[in-house]
Design goal:
The protein is α/β, with parallel strands linked by helices. Helix content is about 40%, strand content about 15%. Bound molecules: S-adenosylmethionine.
Length: about 230
């Protein structure tokens, strides 16, 4: 595994694009109230899932290498991403299913709202320990400290940038810290199925995990409507 490449990816190669709790519920087929268990959002970036769920009394911890940056630097990265992604999405709009978002304007508004909610919660949440700076494949977290780990738009999506060995270590690490792991989507950025899925599945099953691929009520990238679940 190329650690230098992974670190670079954390701050530059992966778009710091944050989604809202309603989107996470659809990606991961989660109920409105996931109950009293502890949830880890790994690779959370500027998603508002932690902020929104904390407001609803759910125990969520967000982890991301982005959190090593001061807030103004994170805000600059996000503003740059928004400037680039609007035109890119417009040019590639045919590659996506628009049922959930409606149109590009509403999608960008959702992203801005997520980021605003994230930044409103971040300083107090960082002090309170619910935003943790860290990165796969080694997490600064105790074994079995979560009931559920979510990984949205990182593993499998960046299959070109993150090789199979990285995925094997990262999924094993998530399974070390949480009783259950859900990863979405299972499609690479170019819209093709991730080449790492089957090898990851076999590897985890050999280690005693139960691995399932399940449909979810969400599709934006065409064909990206399944999650990987590890128990
Ligand atoms: C495309 S964003 C997705 C953010 C959020 N999960 C969502 O779906 O809205 C991917 C995130 O993964 C983070 N990331 C990159 N490399 C990582 C690593 N090795 N471990 C954990 N997170 C990483 C990035 O900093 C970025 O915030």
């Amino acid at each position: 595994m190329n650690r230098e490449r992974t670190a670079r990816l954390g701050l530059a190669g992966v778009t710091p694009w944050g989604r809202r709790a309603s989107e996470y519920r659809a990606f991961f087929d989660l109920p409105e109230d996931p109950g009293p268990g502890r949830i880890l959002d790994c690779g959370a970036g500027p998603s508002s899932y932690t902020a929104e769920m904390t407001g609803a009394g759910v125990r969520v911890t967000a982890l991301d290498p982005l959190y090593r940056l001061p807030v103004p630097a994170m805000q600059r990265l996000l503003a740059d991403a928004q400037h680039k992604i609007g035109p890119a999405l417009t040019a590639e709009r045919h590659r996506f299913v628009w049922d959930f978002y409606g149109d590009i304007h509403r999608l960008l508004t959702a992203r801005r709202e997520a980021a605003e909610r994230f930044f409103a919660d971040y300083s107090a949440g960082r002090a309170g320990g619910r935003y943790v700076c860290g990165e796969l494949p080694r997490l600064p977290l105790a074994t079995s400290s979560f009931d559920l780990a979510l990984c949205s738009h990182l593993l499998f999506l960046y299959s070109r940038e993150l090789d199979l060995e990285f995925h094997l270590h990262a999924l094993s690490e998530l399974a070390r810290v949480a009783a259950e792991v859900r990863v979405f989507p299972m499609i690479s950025l170019d819209g093709t199925p991730s080449p790492h899925v089957e090898a990851c599945r076999r590897f985890l099953e050999r280690r005693g995990a139960r691995v399932t691929i399940e449909p979810v009520p969400f599709e934006f990238q065409r064909g990206a409507n399944h999650l990987l679940r590890i128990r």
